[in-house]
Specification:
The protein has 113 residues and is of the alpha+beta class. It has one domain. Helices cover 55% and strands 12% of the residues. It has helices at 5-20, 28-45, 49-52, 70-81, 100-111; strands spanning 2-3, 68-69, 86-90, 94-98. The strands form two sheets. A two-stranded antiparallel sheet has the order 1-2. Strands 3-4 form a two-stranded antiparallel ribbon. A hairpin with a 3-residue loop joins strand 3 and strand 4 (94-98).
Length: 113
């Protein structure tokens, strides 16, 4: 399945709002929400720039028509997540555990458009 850059941005934002921010018990949720909005702003203004970003372009998941093979991305990330949960340090939140269920949730938020 292929998706547009906007579907990816929308899905990631919905995941963060529905799965991450809701778990923050205090005013940091506002800070994180604002941080995410500002981080995504350049991509919202020019969604195609997501495909040319130096971390994304070399992956070869973009199609000729400017879409992304989201199944290929999901498959690779899921395989890595199956090695076991991982903790990432998120600014203003601290350590955050991510596992295969998070990879599936992000994927589903993206494809549900």
């Amino acid at each position: 399945m292929t998706v547009t850059p906007n579907q990816i941005l929308d899905g990631i934002q919905r995941y963060i709002e529905s799965e991450v921010i809701v778990k923050i018990p205090d005013a940091r949720k506002w800070l994180v929400g604002a941080y995410v909005a500002l981080l995504m702003k350049p991509f919202r203004e020019n969604p195609a720039s997501l495909l040319t970003h130096p971390m994304i372009a070399p992956l070869g998941v973009a199609t000729a028509d400017g879409r992304v093979d989201i199944d290929a991305v999901h498959e690779v990330f899921l395989a890595q997540a199956q090695r076991g949960p991982s903790f990432i340090n998120i600014p203003m939140i601290g350590p955050y555990n991510i596992d295969t269920s998070d990879i599936d949730k992000i994927y589903n938020y993206i494809i549900s458009g």
